[in-house]
Specification:
This protein is α+β, with helices and mostly antiparallel strands and 353 residues long. It contains 7 helices and 21 strands. The longest helix has 17 residues.
Length: 353
């Protein structure tokens, strides 16, 4: 998900900055920021312990207002005066991994929807679509994202967390950018996948992990974003995300998952692997239907349905169906366990599909 969010931000914010002159706009005063929060909360006054901008070197950075006693805080847009975030630590419920509380998920959703509608100007007229609700250890989280023609997503969104015991709002955040009707995509979903595969140099075992998702920037340009993985011609596993222009097919941005780099892929183990090692049995737990057959000092055999992977200590490759799949580093025996590079799980998952 971080890969997708990062590419959406680079598209939306980059395009917005190209078409604006933020530093030429009027900046609100600290007193106006205080009043914005009071209006947001429906209070005539509030005793803030601090009112500061997030960055001293950027006059457009948001104001941060805090009340220490209750652990409450707000972000206020320095250009528009809109409250973009509110956190109420004194309303947080106890942390639990599983959902709990006397208020049902549906009722929490209704509370969140009413709150979002009242706090985000224009919410009811912007075709916001609710994502799958998510349990966040302290309550239910509901997130709405704006969707336009061709199912193109904008960066406009609203997030609300609800306490499942009291029904109080624990957290609110929002994002607002100008919206232009999206241009019609000329590149199909399959073409987007094919172009992404080509951009990364994936030769086999293609696995589409997320998307393609269509997003639109403030100027109406549309982009496909896809996260995928697979093996390159040298047998190395690649995983990353690509944003490409949905009208021309040109690559806009490209990121490798573990290397953190942007730009063209270099076919090397260092660029596709963190170098982290895990016991083979831990790897197998992450792969459906995987079984490990321990062979002692000779290593292990990993089976997934009919596929068989031979793992030997001291080797930097895995044999499968007569082919050698290269790894980022050698497998090794340590304290009676066979340690293998973490990317093996992605290689096996890709090969089993």
């Amino acid at each position: 998900m971080k890969l997708i969010c990062g590419l959406i931000l680079s598209i939306i914010i980059g395009s917005a900055l190209c078409g604006s002159n933020a530093f030429g706009q009027q900046i609100i005063t600290p007193e106006q920021a205080r009043q914005a929060v009071c209006d947001f909360e429906g209070e005539t006054s509030l005793n803030f312990d601090s009112v500061n901008q997030a960055r001293d070197d950027d006059p457009t950075s948001p104001y941060i207002l805090e009340i220490n006693e209750t652990g409450r805080g707000w972000f206020v847009n320095a250009l528009t005066g809109e409250v973009s975030s509110a956190s109420y630590l004194d309303r947080y419920s106890e942390y639990q991994d599983e959902p709990f509380g006397s208020i049902s998920q549906d009722d929490c959703e209704a509370i969140a929807l009413a709150y979002a509608s009242s706090k985000y100007t224009g919410f009811d007229d912007m075709n916001f679509q609710l994502k799958d609700p998510e349990w966040k250890s302290h309550g239910w989280r509901f997130e709405w994202i704006q969707k336009l023609d061709y199912d193109a997503l904008t960066k406009n969104r609203v997030v609300v967390d609800v306490n499942p015991v009291s029904g109080e709002i624990q957290y609110y955040s929002s994002f607002r950018v100008p919206v232009t009707a999206p241009h019609q995509p000329q590149i199909t979903i399959q073409q987007a996948i094919d172009l992404a595969v080509q951009a990364f140099g994936i030769a086999s075992s293609v696995e589409v992990k997320k998307g393609p998702i269509l997003v639109v920037d403030p100027q109406g340009s549309v982009y496909w974003i896809v996260v995928l993985g697979g093996l390159d011609a040298q047998g190395y596993y690649i995983r990353g995300s690509v944003a490409l222009n949905a009208e021309t097919g040109d690559i806009y941005d490209q990121k490798i998952a573990s290397g953190g780099g942007t730009g063209k892929h270099e076919s090397s183990a260092a660029s596709v692997s963190t170098g982290k090692m895990l016991p083979i049995r831990e790897i197998a737990k992450q792969i459906p239907k995987a079984r490990v057959h321990w062979l002692g000092k000779d290593g292990a055999r990993l089976t997934v349905d009919k596929a068989v992977y031979k793992l030997k200590p001291g080797s930097a490759s895995v044999e499968s169906n007569g082919k050698q799949i290269k790894l980022s580093r050698k497998m090794e025996l340590a304290k009676g366990r066979l340690m293998v590079p973490v990317e093996l799980q992605y290689i096996v998952k890709a090969g089993s599909r």
